[in-house]
Amino acid sequence: MEPHIETVIDRNRMMVSDEIAIRIEDMNKWYGNYHVLRDINLTVKRGERIVVAGPSGSGKSTMIRCINRLEEHQAGRIIVDGIELSSDLKNIDKVRSEVGMVFQHFNLFPHLTILENCTLAPIWVREIPRKEAIDAAMHFLEKVKIPEQAHKYPGQLSGGQQQRVAIARSLCMKPKIMLFDEPTSALHPEMIKEVLDTMIELAEEGMTMLCVTHEMGFAQAVANRVIFMDQGQIVEENNPHDFFNNPQSERTRLFLSQIIRH
Amino acid sequence: MEPHIETVIDRNRMMVSDEIAIRIEDMNKWYGNYHVLRDINLTVKRGERIVVAGPSGSGKSTMIRCINRLEEHQAGRIIVDGIELSSDLKNIDKVRSEVGMVFQHFNLFPHLTILENCTLAPIWVREIPRKEAIDAAMHFLEKVKIPEQAHKYPGQLSGGQQQRVAIARSLCMKPKIMLFDEPTSALHPEMIKEVLDTMIELAEEGMTMLCVTHEMGFAQAVANRVIFMDQGQIVEENNPHDFFNNPQSERTRLFLSQIIRH
Amino acid sequence: MTERNPAFVRGEMLPAREPPAGQTGLLKLLRENFFKDWLSALLTVMSLIVSVWFVCSVFPWLFDSVWNANSLSECRQILAGAEGACFAVIRDRWTQLLFGFYPPEQYWRPVLAFALMIVALAPILFPPVPRGLLRFSVVFPGLAYWLIWGGTLWLPVVVYGGFAVGAVLLRMTGRLGAGPGAGLAIVSALTWWFVAPGPVTTVLEQLLPLSLAPVASREMGGFLLSIVIGVTGISLSLPLGIVLALGRRSKMPLVKTISVVFIEFIRGVPLITLLFTASLLLNYFLPPGTTFDLILRVIIMVTLFATAYMAEVIRGGLAALPRGQYEAAEALGLDYWKAQRLVIMPQALKISIPGIVNSFIGLFKDTTLVVFIGLLDPIALSNSIRATADWQGIYWELFIFIGALFFVFCFGMSRYSMHLERRLKTDHR
Amino acid sequence: GTLDEVKSRGKLNCGVSSGTAGFSAPDAKGVWQGFDVAFCRAVAAAVLGDPMKVEFVPTTGQTRFTALASGEIDVLSRATTWTFSRDTDLKLTFAGTNFYDGQVFLVKKELGVSSAKDLNGATVCIQSGTTTELNLAEYFRINKMTYEPVPVDSSAEGERQYQAGACDVYTSDGSNLASVRASFPNPSDHVLLPEIISKEPLGPIVRQGDEQWADIVHWTESALFAAEELGVTKANVDQLADGSDNPEINRLLGKEGDLGKMLGLDAEWARRAIAAGGNYGEIFATNLGDQTPIRLERGLNALWTKGGLMYAQPFR
Amino acid sequence: MANAITFPTLEPHQAFRLSMLLNDGRYRSYTIQIFVLMCLMLGIAWLVDNTIRNLALLGKDFSFSFLWSTAGYDINQRLIEYDTQMTHGRAALVGLLNTVVLAVLSCALATIIGVVAGVLRLSGNPIVARLTVVYVEVFRNIPLLLWILVFGAIMSEAVPAPNAFKGENATAGMILGAVAITNRGVFIPEPLFTRDLGTLNLGIVEPSLNAIAVLVVVIACVLISRVLVRHANRVQSQTGVRPVIWWKTMTVLAAPPLLLLWALGFHLGYPELRGFNFQGGFQLRNALIAMWLGLGIYTGAFIAENVRAGILAISKGQTEAAHALGLRPGKTMRLVILPQALRVIVPPLISQYLNITKNTSLGLAVGYMDLRSTLGGITINQTGRELEGMLLLMLIYLSLSLIISGSMNAYNARVGLKER
Ligand SMILES: Nc1ncnc2c1ncn2[C@@H]1O[C@H](COP(=O)(O)OP(=O)(O)OP(=O)(O)O)[C@@H](O)[C@H]1O
Ligand SMILES: Nc1ncnc2c1ncn2[C@@H]1O[C@H](COP(=O)(O)OP(=O)(O)OP(=O)(O)O)[C@@H](O)[C@H]1O
Ligand SMILES: [Mg+2]
Ligand SMILES: [Mg+2]
């Protein structure tokens, strides 16, 4: 494994407030009879950056998708930004417009230009005037360093560029929390770095982030906490330093040895 | 940049004859109105190994493809092995059977086994008896170290193995010159080395090679000359040592710095 | 809950638990699937009503059917006023619907030909079947012709001889280059076909008679006719379609234009006008005095029709091949035709098989249109059955029988082509 | 000429309708039966010596003339009306009339219609592509009535539509309608209106320009009429062929003179034609007459001596 | 690049040699094309020569003058004025209009059925999904001709005759007192005007001015409502909030046409049973209905598959991304899913339209008087002009097809996804 991240950012410069951004209590989820998530308990404070790791099928994606209700949980509570997720549609809408999400396969809208991708939700959900939405979008596109691509279509960009657009698109909704689900795993190796750089920049600005990733370099550089999941449960939770250098659980150790060898 | 090549081969052991293998004189090529290749002049002697480098879109592939007339040039001359490439189809056929080419994406024939891939052209172009063609193919497959895969289909092999088959397939035509167009750039990093090793072995046997690649380690280890192209022209031409340590042109310097940082 | 700071390690793993009540069981299944919201509930209820109504209205009629009678009036007597189908007509006429007026004592011939067809198709459609059988696939058309039309076996043999003559000449003239060599081969094969069949066949037949009772194509009807027209149309259109597809992709403007015009013309007019051309106009276009079998004329037009569609299917297959395949073949020194034959076509055809099967289904269904020019396909036979005094007035039973047979054929094939498509998808990954 | 072609082929190609009860339809064994069919068999017997050496080619209203013109069939025996434009413009030769028909209307009794003049506003089923269609249009036009045509493409289809009540009236040739009516479960619920609105002389047709062949077809037909006039039947033809005291019978059956040769056939041609299905009267009776479900009266098709129009040209 | 070594110098311009016609890439393609052209010309010449000789042999000429002779036959469904004394050309025009009407009606029906079935097949409801599968498979795998015959039979066998509506103990009744479904067709109320503005004489057709007036007003209203929508878009892009305009557009769309209709004295003419048949109202003949249902339902099965494929082609990720951005399901559908699905669905949809148009030629089977039955049927049969008639017929069908496929290409060019 090549570490893509050279600079470890100054963790102290980024304050973590005491406010709670996400709180998950005894959350359980089943797919049919299959128990995917078991008694998940997790509290994320505003400004915290959490990396979720774990073997494939351990439920990482499912957990993160429960947070903006792309999946429904069946027991326990999820409270995001003070709003409890239930089947109340109003609450779901509120939560979704506070939480941005970046997917593994970008999921840009191929029939819209980059700029339209970024302004779609602000215009139709936030009901911002088009002019303002465009300005905001251009601002975020500059931030991810591709303002010059604004009028192209997603199909015309490279994978790394697309993923950066996806991040900008989420940012345009000015979310308080960002969820990332393996944002770099569908990318060519040369492009991983440009996406990770963007994410680090975001972290430096104090965004609350919950990030499923196997980029351990990123975890070491950015995370406040690393969460290790297996078989639908949180197995270990630790600060990055201890997590990597002194893992407590047998499973974590096994996982890390595999990851690093690969 | 990781150098994949540890051994620098003994250049003196490989003689460069005085015979001319390829001669390109004032060659120009246009795509529509776009001038891709401008006044290319290049002479390659038998046994020489030349590496072509340059930024994306600089016309490297186009130049190399002109040499076996996969692309047509519009002005100037290309003389390969004493045969001038013109629209005379007989000459083109002759040149093509003297020149082997390896592509970035292998381009093996997926409906044929490895062995059939290797014997197809000898049987149908050179009109060699099948028995002999198979013997020759097995010989070259042994050389690229995959004789045991002979009866599999390309889809069942890894990228590195496929590229080695592609090399063997070219060799089966007993070409006097081999062209390589970024043979390793579509490969996973672990597989690059096995392909480069094969190419080095070929170089050691004195094959005339023209190789577009960004593997600077390979260039340093094997090449007699490195050619740097930009905007459709040859900008610099030098021996590898000077090329890397003491580049003459500003553009080369810039390119090398990018390549090495990335 | 507890604040876990800074570190948390789970001691022992939680076991999987059952989902809470209301999350499983029949009730949930019903609620989630059938009554999720009012729309879904409405649809469920409506579907149930439609199904029940259909079953109630059709099943009594079907179950109360009469199989043993010699005419419709006899059926009516047996039913004595009750609602019921009179499938006796099928019992009476099913051989006619299947074979037309093919001589009954010869039925084994088309049946055998059909069975052999499945054997011949096997190596193409089912990869596990040994490739050696492909040789049989090549021989099959001649064999089938002989079985179905009868006459001497030597005729197809001599016709195959034409290919052999062409192939030998192609070998011998290889030095001349591909163009003239192929030209010479084609000319010699054509000459053979024009000159040889008559005398050579007679001589061979005298030496070793191998004859079946000849059957005129006029005697063929029903599904036999549909299958003959459909299968011949598709198999003849395959080589022509390949040529046309290559023509359409050609860089030569004239060749390309001709191909495009032909394809678009054929695809732009209804099949029925082509059939009318076969029956009304073809005689105008041929030298005065030539007449030949209507079925042959129909097969010619149907082949032209299928060729246009086939060309588009194969063009799709060609387009799906990456450019690299062409370039690799070129770089190895293969010329255009060798590259096509050895590298491009085998792959393009394999990709196109589902499309070809679908074209065949379409064509097979379209063979019913020959009823308009007086050929006795199943629908035409159903008309003439209804014209006899015994079965005047019968209707649904015949349609159900014909429809069911078509359904079985086409559904089977379409399932198979879907299966192929899926397999292709995984093959490619 | 056509004669040589037929002889060398060994089969007569005869165009018939693909299904008209009583006139032509294949039975369960695929053997064609009917009035038109019997006529073709007679020609085949005369020319080739075997009534079974006929290839029946089903034609539709649309394809029939083309099939003849292109040489696909040698004779068209498909209840085709002899009209001026067909004879001249379509370049056909009518070899004589073997069935005199006329267009009539079939209606349900419950409608209470007794004359075609009461049909104003009625819905009429009609086979498209036939002369019937034109006659119908003209009749309603002359009588200043309107109607709603429902075109159908076969007799069976027209009959079904009529029975289902999709049209009030079914119009077609009288013979056809009589057979249709006869096949109904209760024929007495339907009436044929008295008006005959057209003349429909039906008969076999050959290509224009081959006089010999036209003569053969015409005289075969005539031979069948003559046989009825002279009392030659299927049963007694062999016996009479050995010689009789009527010279015309002798000429007809080849005992005297060489009429056959003049036609390009052998002497026994007429004998075979008669032996194939009997004389005209017998053919009529077996296919259309009282013993059949069609139960057609001879009417105009009786011999001229019995008040009909059938009249054989002298064999002399 | 100076090089001391001697090198075989070749003449820069080779003289032309005959063998270059075959061996030189530049000339060979000309050689081949000229060869192909010659073959083609020879083939065409052969066909034309045969045709001329055959025509001479039959004593026929090649002329389209038959189009101007009296047709003499009747056509029951006519959109423009026609009677038996008019010409064959006129009859062909009537047939062409019938073809077009049938094609348009069938395309609409097939689209509706196809979209509904395609969507239902994807619905989570297993009964409904199963039923749609049955529908799709049954219709796709049985020949269209059989379906047309079946619908023809249903329309004449399973539906009451007009006299079932008659008398005290009528066994059938009209739906809402306005629509009568009989085995001679479906009778629906027709629009009538008490104030007739007369007709406009355009030579071939004489459309009623009332209809034109209504049409003009409706088009104008649609244009105005488009302006309203555009205004709403502008407001939205300036302020972010989209004004509620549905009631305005409804008013604009509905009020003026209604007013005009009232002014013209619009009322409905109901069908009434008189004499043999229903009179008044608008008659949709059985043949039309059988063809319409047959074509519509049969093709609907194919369209359903296209629709399903189109929706499935839009990955679940698109919906999830839209949801994650906070878009509600309705807006997700309108802004994200539909625009993408349409790109996938429309091209095969248009080729189904092409099929429908070509398949209208099966009208013969149930006696529908379309172009093929008039020009390609009775006219050819009566005049014996099969060569001219068939050529004309093919040309007309070809033009219809080209128009349709042209619109498909235009659509593809407009919406094609941009790729790298
Ligand atoms: N829609 C679904 N229905 C049923 N099972 C599902 C569904 N989605 C996921 N699963 C199952 O739930 C488990 C957890 O899936 P999840 O995608 O959350 O894992 P993950 O940790 O994200 O794995 P990966 O690293 O491969 O993305 C897996 O076993 C998966 O097979
Ligand atoms: N078929 C073509 N038609 C038009 N332009 C082309 C075509 N092929 C290549 N080009 C253009 O020609 C230029 C040179 O392309 P070429 O592929 O030779 O570059 P390269 O040096 O090989 O780049 P890379 O490192 O990306 O492979 C590029 O600008 C490319 O866009
Ligand atoms: Mg996951
Ligand atoms: Mg390149």
UniProtKB/TrEMBL annotation, chains A, B:
A GO term for molecular function: ATP binding
Record key words, sorted: ATP-binding, Nucleotide-binding, Plasmid, Transport
Residues covered by the ABC transporter domain: 22-256
SMART domains: AAA (SM00382)
InterPro entries to which the protein is assigned, alphabetical: AAA+_ATPase (IPR003593), ABC_ATPase_HisP-typ (IPR030679), ABC_transporter-like_ATP-bd (IPR003439), ABC_transporter-like_CS (IPR017871), MetN_ABC_transporter-like (IPR050086), P-loop_NTPase (IPR027417)
Gene3D superfamilies on file: P-loop containing nucleotide triphosphate hydrolases
PANTHER family: AMINO ACID IMPORT ATP-BINDING PROTEIN, PHOSPHONATES IMPORT ATP-BINDING PROTEIN PHNC
Annotated family: Belongs to the ABC transporter superfamily.
Name of the featured protein: Amino acid ABC transporter ATP-binding protein
TrEMBL record, chain C:
Keyword rRNA-binding: no
InterPro entries: AA_ABC_transptr_permease_3TM, ArtM/GltK/GlnP/TcyL/YhdX-like, MetI-like, MetI-like_sf
Top-rank taxon, per record: Bacteria
Keyword match Cell membrane: yes
Keywords: Cell membrane, Membrane, Plasmid, Transmembrane, Transmembrane helix, Transport
Membrane topology classification: Multi-pass membrane protein
Subcellular location: Cell inner membrane; Cell membrane
Domain (ABC transmembrane type-1) ranges: 223-417
Residues spanning the membrane: 38-63, 107-126, 154-170, 182-200, 220-246, 258-282, 294-314, 351-374, 394-413
PANTHER family, alphabetized: INNER MEMBRANE AMINO-ACID ABC TRANSPORTER PERMEASE PROTEIN YHDY, MEMBRANE COMPONENT OF AMINO ACID ABC TRANSPORTER
Record-stated family: Belongs to the binding-protein-dependent transport system permease family. HisMQ subfamily.
NCBIfam families: HEQRo_perm_3TM
Name by which UniProt lists this protein: Amino acid ABC transporter permease
Native source species: Sinorhizobium chiapasense
Lineage: Bacteria, Pseudomonadati, Pseudomonadota, Alphaproteobacteria, Hyphomicrobiales
Automatic annotation (TrEMBL), chain E:
Ranges for domain ABC transmembrane type-1: 96-408
Principal place of residence: membrane
SUPFAM superfamilies in the record: MetI-like
Cell location: Cell inner membrane; Cell membrane
Keyword Metal-binding on entry: no
Transmembrane stretches, start-end: 30-48, 96-122, 142-159, 171-188, 208-229, 250-269, 289-314, 390-411
Keywords per UniProt: Amino-acid transport, Cell membrane, Membrane, Plasmid, Transmembrane, Transmembrane helix, Transport
Keyword Transmembrane: yes
Pfam family, one: BPD_transp_1
InterPro entries: AA_ABC_transptr_permease_3TM, ArtM/GltK/GlnP/TcyL/YhdX-like, MetI-like, MetI-like_sf
Top-level taxon of the source organism: Bacteria
Membrane topology designation: Multi-pass membrane protein
PANTHER family: AMINO-ACID ABC TRANSPORTER PERMEASE PROTEIN YHDX-RELATED, MEMBRANE COMPONENT OF AMINO ACID ABC TRANSPORTER
Family from the record: Belongs to the binding-protein-dependent transport system permease family. HisMQ subfamily.
Name under which the protein is recorded: ABC transporter permease subunit
